[in-house]
Amino acid sequence: MSYTSLSCLQNSVFFGPCVACPMMLLASFGLGYEEDEIPGIIRLGMNFSYLRHGVEALVMAVYGNGRGRLECPKNEDYCELRDPSALFKTVGMSQVTYWGSMSALCGMFLAFKVASYVMLRWRLSTKPSLLLKLGFVGRFIKANFNIPR
I want to staple 30 with a disulfide (CB 3.0 to 4.6 A). Which of 11, 24, 92, 94 is the partner? Predict the structure, then answer.
């Protein structure tokens, strides 16, 4: 997401949602699957999704920390998800900890802040950068070689 600070406004407006959509999909992908049923490359993508860690931290804050059994409605004969540990196993979060998810969120926040700062400083610097040189080359080619847009 911090790449958008390097590009122009039109590219940033397009690129932001293009990155956010896969993150949203990866945040909810593993719900309902056991941890070993998810392919490794998808699990790796899930680990880089800040939305996934947010969902995990929220579920652990509500249902974790030794929460007792949940109440079942009177008209139900059997409640499968009465025990919070059964809920964690069902949604594939049996190995998740609250502090692990929160530390991942804080680490991602700091990494995004530092990367955005560095990229903005690079873009706003007065020294000619690689992006400026590439833009000049592109304008030169379009102006002198009559390439249609």
Answer: 92
* pTM recorded for the entire structure: 0.69
Report angle CA 47, 53, 54 to the nearest 5 degrees.
155
- From residue 92, how far is each of 10, 24, 46, 106, 128 by CA, in Å? 39, 17, 12, 22, 50
Cα-based angle 61, 64, 69 (whole degrees, multiple of 5): 125
- Number of CB atoms found within 10 A of residue 26's CB: 19
pLDDT tens for each residue of 95-131: 889 999 999 999 999 998 998 888 888 777 766 666 6
**Residue 109, token pair as written in the block:** 């926040």
Cβ density class 110-120: b for 16+ within 10 Å, e for less: eeeeeebeebe
Whose tokens are 């592109």? That residue is 138
Q: Which residues contact 79 (CB under 8 A, 6 or more apart)?
A: 70, 72
